[in-house]
Amino acid sequence: MAIYEKAEWMLLDVLGMGTDYYKAGGGVFNLTQHIDYLKEVRKGDTVAVHYRLLGRSTSKKRLRFVFVMVNTSAGVVASTLQCLCTHISLATRRSSAFPDRILATIEEHLAQHKALPFAEPPSVLCMDPN
């Protein structure tokens, strides 16, 4: 899980929600996660984690994405992590819509990821439109 946690912080930073954003009172809570362990990773193996945004809610509060961990030493997908998160205000501890600048970045990534030449993985997480 430590590798996925680091990957999620890197993704949040790319989307404009890194540690400075959290210090300013914004952030996300993960609502649900689903991990599939597919192949063993042994000590000494090298791994890479890739992400793909899968969708956002119509309320502009929730985001669904997947991480794919590749064992580059063996050339195989080792595991996947699908996540559904919600944007929150740390001051109120309530969900809130993504700010416009972050939503624009999310939309840009979603468009790029929908255009990828391979299908997105089957979803195991449902996203309520709210």
Explained architecture:
This protein is an alpha+beta fold and 130 residues long. Helix content is 25%, strand content 37%. It has helices spanning 2-14, 19-23, 100-114; strands at residues 26-37, 47-56, 62-71, 76-89, 94-95. Strands 1, 2, 3, 4 and 5 form a five-stranded antiparallel beta sheet that branches.
Task: Write the topology of this structure.
Blueprint: H1 2-14, H2 19-23, E1 26-37, E2 47-56, E3 62-71, E4 76-89, E5 94-95, H3 100-114
Antiparallel strand pairs: 1-4, 2-3, 3-4, 4-5
Summed up:
This protein has 130 residues and is α+β, with helices and mostly antiparallel strands. 25% of the residues lie in helices and 37% in strands.
Features:
5-stranded antiparallel β-sheet, 25% helix, 5 strands, 130 residues, alpha+beta
